[in-house]
Structures are given as structure tokens and as C-alpha cells.
Amino acid sequence: MTFLRELLRFFVARKKVWLIPVVAVLLLFGVLIVLTGSSAIAPFIYTIF
Amino acid sequence: MNILGIASYYHDAAAALIVDGVIVAAAQEERFTRKKHDEAFPAHAIAFVLKQGRLSLADIDAVVFYDKPYLTFERLLETYHAVAPKGLRSFIAAMPVWIREKLFMRSMLQRELQKLGTLKADVFFTEHHLSHAASAFYPSPFEDAAILTIDGVGEWATTTICHGKGNAIRVLKQIDFPHSLGLLYSAFTAYCGFKVNSGEYKLMGLAPYGNPSGERTKTFEKLIRTHLIKIHDDGSFVLNMDFFAYTTGLRMYRENAWKSLFGIPPRERESEQIAQEYMDLAYAIQQVTENVVLRLAKTAQKLTGAQNCCLAGGTALNCVANGKLQRAGIFKHLWIQPAAGDAGGALGAALAYWHIKQGAVRVPADGDAMQGAYLGPRFDDDDIRIVCREFDAPYQSFTDEGQLCAEVARLLDEGKVVGWFQGRMEYGPRALGNRSILGDARNPDMQKKLNLKIKFREGFRPFAPAVLESEAVNYFATSATSPYMLIVTNVNKELCNPLPPDYRTMPLLDRLYVQRSPLPAITHIDFSARLQTVSPKTNPRFHALLTAFKARTGCPVLVNTSFNVRGEPIVCTPRDAYRCFMRTEMDALVMGNILLLKEAQKPLAESSDWRETYTLD
Hints:
Strand content of chain A: under 5%
CATH class of the largest domain in chain B: Alpha Beta
Largest sheet of chain A: none
Strand order of the largest sheet of chain B: 13-21-20-14-15-19-16-18-17
Structural class of chain A: mainly alpha
Distance between the termini of chain B: 39 Å
CATH architecture of the largest domain in chain B: Alpha-Beta Complex
Strand content of chain B: 15-25%
Shape of chain A: extended
Shape of chain B: globular
Number of helices of chain B: 21
Distance between the termini of chain A: 24 Å
Largest interface: A-B, 29 and 41 residues
Oligomer: heterodimer
CATH superfamily of the largest domain in chain B: Carbamoyltransferase, C-terminal domain
Largest sheet of chain B: 9 strands, mixed
Number of strands of chain A: 0
Helix content of chain B: 25-40%
């Protein structure tokens, strides 16, 4: 919960509240990806994430 | 106040400790784990810096991480949102690690730190490019300086111009992702068949083989400028994302677009031969990179009015561009953080906390505050003897430094290659005479021997010279010092031999082995050299060795290359050094006051092939 509060405060401070629905949808997808266990390490790319 | 700086989870994890503003210790995690560019939480490096400072974790007053993960997350979300539905593969690759770990960075760091002791301090975060800027400005000798940071990407920023004055750093200009000079250079690194984020220096070493006056090279440069990057007069730039894939996929460039633009396919990775086309392409991108750096530097000078400039960020390791910047005379003085890549962010984060958050007054150090970058672990003769006994290795001990240096100078003069392991390990990617392999720069076969029998790396790659600081002007076209081997300069014209008339049409290796100067092992194909000037103040023993070599041969220059084989991190401990010594055709190893000769050693019991231990970079 601390994390969610912190993240919310961050988006408010950055005036990026519009990102919250995007976060929600992407996180949902993300959670599904984590649960299905698929992950790939990028072999040919500079670590941008 | 004791401040612990940490860099990790991207590449080149590291830890740094400052006590009341004084840099006590700093080291990269890869040196301890023996995994090149190790990005894992730097538990070993933290344990080392605490030990060096004779502190426990409970004594630390603040822990500072070099990057703001929420800002990076914001950049990722906005990027995926902007390019959707493309980018799914990248999203799938990125999200698990974010959802499991990086979004919870604070608690993850706390958890990891608690494994090392009792954590009482809070965890703070600095912006990635502020960490770079702080690592460049605060240890520099300047009261007032322009600061240029250029790398692949931090959170959003890929390039910044800052102004450092006293204890303050002000960000004046910033270029954001996806427009990145570092990523542009990395894309060409990949296209020319080298590994992204470690092969960039190979591309830089390949560039001088390109034909500067050739039509193809000129065309490549024009194509880059017209299609890939739009460079403005002030050095700001915009990449044409139609040619790049890193926002949407797991590759740097769009292969078909590049193929039809340049008319050549991507070079197969690590293929034996390198065609002239790729050398010309490397030359072209190097020219473009230098042009951007020079323009940015001019803008930085205009905006700040400063006479001095500090550099950091991965692109600051492009020592050819640094040399051009120095010779351009835009600034009177140039200072580059020796750990310019992400590892240096650990130090920058700690220093930023001390001077910006705590408001601590800054007194610029005479020379600089980096202590020669010798900030890593030290091993004394007793530690070394234990390792010699462990390997049952015959050795000779010296009690007099003069005798030791005279003996090593004799070995070098005879064409022997010597592993030189002394004092504290270097912080940053360069070996500066404490974890070095040394050879005679006058020896015409030295480059071949070092590349193929000792380092096992590509034959085309150049070696760097270490020269007595007081003698540098007699050999190299520079009056400035270069203690951190981050400036490429030219060998003095009067020392350069004329080239054969068919030089440009000769095969790569034939060109390489043309004797270009009386110092062939360190004179690169374009008569340049990546210089290290050695001062008695920062490295008295290495200075003593060069002095002994000069006394014997009249030459104050040695080849200095890092003590490792290809793909291996630079050695850290006497054990690492002995193993590396025994796995290669190195002739002698000097550790502290102890000399080991290869001919006296028994074969290493653990006979594993180093190629199975280390992945080629």
C-alpha cells in the first residue's frame, strides 16, 4: 500500500495523472505476464528497461 | 557523515563510500563476482567499501541510489502507450522485472542491505544524469565548470548540459529518450557485429581503419546525417525513429531500413573478417558523434561562460571524441570522470547527496579528488604469499623497490609480457597501472602477441601507452595530462614513419603491422594513441617502473592494457591474477614485491579453458 500511495503521489507531482488508467491496464497485463511466467532477456538491445 | 552510493540493476553495478565528503572507496561488483558488467545488487562491492572505511552498515547515515525508478517507469509506460500495439515483445520482456522488483526498489534495496547488516539509514534516489554530472563535477579540480553528460538513457534524459558552481549543479538543457547519441552509437555497434553496451569501444577502435577520403565513407556520413539523425547548430538532435527499433522491439535498428539505406547487411557477430565497408561505416558514425559532442560543448560554453568542462556518461568513454574536444580549445581545461559509465553513478549519487541535499561546502581538490581512481581493494605481500603457497607457485621476493623495478624493466626490455598487480584496484573500466599487463611499446611484435596470445581478442584492436608525465610532450602531441587514459592524442609527427603508397588498399592486418613509429605497439593505424600520463604523486610505483625502464632503454613508454582476458572482468585479487597469468602466455607476474616467472611455474591444476568461464564480449 505504501508503494501505491508513493506511486500516486509521484504521478500527481509529475502532473501525469492521465497515466493512472494506463498504469492500471498495463499492470493488469503485466501481472498476467508474470503469472504466466514468460520473460525474455533482450539479447541485442541496450538495457533501456 | 557516512554516505553509501549504489548503482545497480541495469549494467555495471557498483558501490562507493564517502565519509564527510572524502571518497574512501569505490568498486564495481563485476570485479568480485567475475561476471563482466554484472548488474546485480552490489553486495560484494558494498561489503568491500564498508570494510575499507572500517564501518558497519549501521554506521551509514544515508544510502543513495543513482537512478529514479518511478521516472524510468513513467518513461516506459509513455513509450509503450505511444507505440502500442507495437512494443508488445519489449513490454513482455520488461514488465516481469518491473512488477516483481524495480517498482519496489526502495524495499528491495532495504531488503538486500539488511542481509549485510543493520540498516539504520534512509534510502534516497538521485536522477541518473545528475549522478553522472555529480560524479564529473564534484571530484574535478574546478570551482566553476560546464558539465556535459551523454549516455544511452537514464530515466528520460539521454544528454544534459549542466552548470557546476561551488557546491551546486544546475541542469540547463536536456535531451530526452528516444533521441540518444549513446543509443545511436550502440545501434552502429550492433550493425557492425559487436555486442551492444560492451562493443562500443571496439567500434571506436575500428573507425580509424575507415578510409577518411573515400567516397563510400563520405556517402555513409551523409546518409547518417540526412536519414538517421538531424543535428541542430546547438548540438541538439532528433533521431528518425523509422530507422530504430529499440522503442518497440528487442533490437536496436530496423534491419531492412538500414540495409536499403547503407546497401550492406548487418555484419555477422564475431565473424572473423571485417569488410572495409564496416570500417568506413564505423568511421562515419564516429565523425557524426564527434560533431555532436563538439556542438554540444560549444553550446555548454555559451550557456555557462565557463572555462572548464567536465564529462561523464558512457559516451564520455569515447576517448577519440574527448581528444577532439580537448584540441578544439572550446574550454581551457577538460576533466573526465574515470568511471564515466554507470558504475560512476554510485559515486555521483553519494556526492550529490552530500553537496546538494546536505548543502556541504565544496573545496575543489588540487589535481582532483579521485586519488588516481585507485579506490578498490589492496592486498599486501602476506596475502600474496598465501596465494602463492595455495598454488604451490615458486616466487622471488624483493625488499627493495629499485631492484624490483630494475628487474621488471629488464624483463620488459627482453620482450617479456608482465602482469603488474599493485596497490589498490582501479575504479572504472581502465587499468591504470595497478591491475595492468605491461609490454615494451618499441617491440614490433608486441601488439600481435598481446592481442592473440595474452588477451585473446580481435587482432585489429589497439593498445594504449603509459608514459612518464614529464616525458609525454616528447612523444605525444599534447601538453595536457591524461591520468585516466581517456584522451586520444597523436604521436608526435617527427616520430611517425611515412606510409607505403598502397596502404589504403592493403588488407586490415597488413595495414596494422606497418611500422608507423618507433613505438609501433601503441601507435594506432591513424598515428593516434590513447594516452595515460603517469605521475609520481598518484602512482609512485608505476612511475618508478617507467623511470627504471627509461634508465635502461631510454624509452619512458610502456604498453599498458588491463589485466584480464577477453570477456573477463579486470582481476581483483592475487588469486584472479595468478589464474589469469597461468591461463595466458604472459611471461612474468609481479604482485606487490613478489615476482613469479612463468618458466618456473607448474601447470595450473584447474585446467579449465578460460573461454568456458567467460563469455566473449
